[in-house]
Amino acid sequence: MTALNNYDQRSSDILFAQSDQRNTRNIFSGPGNIEGRDSFSAIGQISSLVITVPDSDFNITNAFKVILTGEWNLSIRNGSVTNFDVNFLASPMDGRGTHVHQISNFKPYDNDMPIRLSEDNSVVIRGTADIKINGVIIWDQADISISISNGNIFNIDPDDADTENHFGDQQVYGIVTRLI
Fold first, then answer.
1. Which of 22, 80, 84, 106 is the most exposed place for a label (fewest CB within 10 A)?
2. pLDDT tens per residue across span 150-175
3. Could you tell me which of 19, 15, 42, 38 has the C-alpha nearest to residue 146?
4. Separation of alpha carbons 89 and 110, rounded Å
5. Whether the predicted model's global pTM rises above the 0.85 cut
6. Are 83 and 110 in contact (CB under 8 A)?
7. Is the dihedral of CA 28, 40, 123, 33 positive or negative?
């Protein structure tokens, strides 16, 4: 696999994401409510735009773009990950090379340390996962970081070396639509 940007080695990438907070439901509403923070479920949508930016003569109109859209879910019970699945479509602006990513079989690095939401409904979990393209495992047990920020923003950060720079040194962003 090659990086999203394979036409110009002197390029850098920019990623944009939007959050729609109208559908967000959060039961952990205040700093005093810390019971149950080691058992929660979160679901949401992937909604990212990857823009490949050349080092010189940048023009947003002519920059190559890849739209990422899909869904994710995360379940934590008694401080342990019981489920984590991500499915998203990567669609280049020219309509060629469209493919689906699936991320599953997540295993946190430190199983002895319970996973808990912070008081501001944030969590970062690092571990490994299998990453598929169109249903075929391409990267087995790739390092990956999962993050929820303030109960609203979600991102995953697959390790570039483990994924042969397929994600172009960028995180995949989305929103949290439900946190219970």
1. 22
2. 999 999 999 999 999 888 788 999 99
3. 42
4. 30
5. no
6. no
7. positive
